[in-house]
Amino acid sequence: MALKKTQAAALCAVLLAGGCSFAEDALFPASGTVATTQPAAGAVSAEQLPAEAPPALGSSNFDPVGVTAGSPTGTFVGGKVTALRGDLQSLQAALARQNQSLQQIRNETVQDSQRYHGTVAAINARLQVGTTPGNPVLTQQWNAAQGELDRITDDVLKMNRLTNEVTASSTMSGFLLDSVRAARSLSGAVDEDHRQLRILEDETNRTVVMVERLLGELTADATRQQQYVASEKQNLNTLALGIKNGALFAGGLSSRINASYDAAPARTAPASGDMPLVTIRFDKPNVNYEPALYAAIKSALDRRPNATFDVVAVSPVGATPGQQSLAASTAKRNADQVLRSLTAMNLPASRVRVTSTTSATASGGEVQVFVR
């Protein structure tokens, strides 16, 4: 979006001493007006961005229905009924063990999730009020949270192993039901054999239904927990960035992105008259640009969830080709550093493109971020 120079001068707000300017409202004017006052980076309340709660686990209990005893009839079919009844008892015993394992895994997962969220909440609370960059106490808590999330990962692995066992039981239950039904067509049976077969078929059918319900609920639990762990790993990366800066980066940038957005649209190079969302001037060592960068990108995604971004390395025109090459290389390294920061904030790499250019007006190397 091209803006007049007078507008650009009025809209550009300096957020950080040392060279990071933020012009988000110039790119996204609200209702025809432009506000130049932006919230301080990290100053986002827990009420505005609540921590993601762990997914609810299933609550069903899968106790076997039991097997009705039967008296031997002395016929071939009667012997078949006795064998099939034993198979059903074995299947239900396996189902009981699998149900017990499921309830134990659920209890462990709930306890591990509670410990993890308690630790993360303590870190967020400290960052909410501000703290020193790289606070060793928070670093220790972050390491504890990482260990607790690893235990949740182990719980998911247990769910996956149990899923394989229940899948085998599902296959067995289907085969057993077919066998019971086939036994009814065998010759040489007495009425008592068929009576017992009807009871056995009903109980086998109920067991099949229970095994399928167990498998479905277990699969849903494992899938939700896998997605949750993957999301929390990204959130821990964002939390580490907050600890590094001593400020709260509430919620990763991925949480601001429209879930229905799949592919980045085609982008063109920034027009010469476009105003950057953020300009970071690397005019001194260790420029603390990340809080302002986070605030700018987050606000842009709040207004346009499917936005993409261009990170442009801008180098001054050198007096000699050697100087210009050195300046371009330095600017590119700075742009790569900004890209790594955005990745740590959970902004997908598919949303960012890194390019480079030269500028006769740039006094030193800088990185400009444009929204598309």
Shape: elongated
Low-pLDDT windows of residues: 1-19, 21-51, 258-267
Element order, helices and strands? HEEHHHHEHEHEE
**What's the helix count?**
7
Number of domains: 2
Within the largest sheet, what's the order of strands? Answer: 1-2-3-6-4-5
The proportion of residues forming helix, as a percent range, comes to 55-70%
Distance between the termini: 9 Å
Number of strands: 6
Please state the oligomeric state of the protein chains shown: single chain
Beta-strand share of residues: 5-15%
Radius of gyration: 31 Å
What does this structure look like?
This protein has 372 residues and is of the alpha+beta class. Helices cover 55% and strands 9% of the residues. The chain has helices at residues 5-11, 24-27, 76-129, 136-183, 191-245, 290-303, 321-344, and strands at 13-16, 20-22, 278-281, 309-316, 352-359, 366-371. A 6-stranded mixed β-sheet has the order 1-2-3-6-4-5, covered by helices on one side. Residues 1-19, 21-51 and 258-267 have low confidence and may be disordered.
